[in-house]
Amino acid sequence: MISTEKKIAIHNLIEERWSPRAFENKSVGEEQLKALFEAARWAPSAMNEQPWRFIYAVKEDKENFDRLFSCLVEGNSWAENASALFISVAKKNYDYNGNPNSVALHDLGLATGNLLLQATDLGLHVHLMGGFKADKAREVLGIPEGFEPVSMGAVGYAGDPETLPENLKAREVAPRKRKPLNEIAFKGEWEQK
Ligand SMILES: Cc1cc2nc3c(=O)[nH]c(=O)nc-3n(C[C@H](O)[C@H](O)[C@H](O)COP(=O)(O)O)c2cc1C
C-alpha cells in the first residue's frame, strides 16, 4: 500500500517500496535474486570492508527454503508464501586488522537498502524480518564465528490481502505511517525544528 501523506517529492523507488505479507504464487528467478544481491554488493562501507553476507533460497528449492523458514518465529509464518527467503549476516571484525567493525550493522543496512530498491525496480517486494531465531540460524545454516545473523527477508510479488487471516489483513491494508520530518531532522542542533 502506497502512503497517501506525500508532501515532499522523493524517488519513485523509495515511495513504492513497502512490506507485504501476502505474496502471489509466482516464482522469482535466480537472475532476479542475483540482481538484488548485486545491488547490495555496490553499497558503500567503511574501509570498503563490505561486511555483508546473504544466504538465500527460492521456494522451488524446498530443502533450503524450509531450512531458512524454520529460523523464523511463528509470528512471521506468513513468509511461507514468499517466493524466496534470505538471511542477512554481518561480519563483525575488519578483515584488515581484526578489530571490531563498529559500523558493520550500519553497512549491512546500507546494502540491504540497495537490495530493497533494486527489488522494487524489478516489480518485487521484500519484507524484512527481525523475528527469527539467530541461534537456530547459526546452527542450521552453518554461519561461522565472527558473523552475526541480523535480519531475514521474504521476497516475492505482492499478493491479494484477502488471502491473509483477518489480523494480518488489517495490518496489510492499514495506512503506512512515519514520524514527521521535524522529529527526525534537526537544523544545526539537537531538536531545533
Ligand atoms: C530490521 C527489520 C525487522 C523487521 N522485522 C519484522 C518482523 O519480524 N515481522 C514483520 O512482520 N515485519 C518486520 N519488519 C517490517 C516493518 O514492520 C516495516 O518495515 C515497517 O512497519 C514499515 O512498513 P513498510 O516497510 O511497509 O514501509 C521489519 C523491518 C525491518 C527493517
From TrEMBL:
KW Oxidoreductase (keyword) present? yes
Q: Which domain of life is it from?
A: Bacteria
Task: Provide the Nitroreductase domain boundaries.
Answer: 14-73, 78-157
Q: What's the short name of a Pfam family annotated to this entry?
A: Nitroreductase
Annotated InterPro entries:
Nitroreductase, Nitroreductase-like
Alphabetically ordered keywords of this record: Oxidoreductase
Gene Ontology molecular function: any one? oxidoreductase activity
* Family label: Belongs to the nitroreductase family.
The molecule here is called Nitroreductase
Q: Tell me which species this is from.
A: Pontibacter diazotrophicus
